[in-house]
Structures are given as C-alpha cells and as structure tokens.
Please model this.
Amino acid sequence: MEKKYLTTTELAKLLGISRIAVFKKIKSGKIKAKKKGRNFVIKRTELGDILDESITEKRKAEIREAVKKTVKEYGETLKLLGKE
Model:
C-alpha cells in the first residue's frame, strides 16, 4: 500500500537536496507540510506541484526534447507495448 505522506528525508532524496533545504522551503511556504510530532510530513498529492516548481525551464525543455526523440525513434514499439 502506498503511503499518503512523505517524510522530509524522503522528499529531500527525491528532489536531490538536503533535509535542511526542505525545511527552508517549508518555512518559506514553498512546500506545504503538516507538523506531526516534532517532524513535518508532506502529502503525496502535493508532490506534483513541488516537482514542477523544482524543475527549471531549461530542464523541462530537455525533457520535452527527450520525449519527442523517444517517440520518434520508438513510437511503434511503444504503441505495441501499450496494447499488452
């Protein structure tokens, strides 16, 4: 069963930043988190907004190009795999 919340450590690993950086983002309001005991937890439903914000426009363009290239080169294979 998938957890509803992530710990600050899990989010830090996912974003590739330190726990301290996660705490700073929580304190500044960039990441919505709930206080649970002495720790913070982040709803998984907030993950899309957090990840979208942490990806730069340059990186988004790189990802778009990579997806286009993959679809161009492997489009037929991807269609066949989607039918399985």
About this structure: The CA atoms of residues 10 and 78 lie 31 Å apart. The chain has one domain: 5-83. DSSP finds four helices and three strands in the chain. The mean pLDDT is 87.
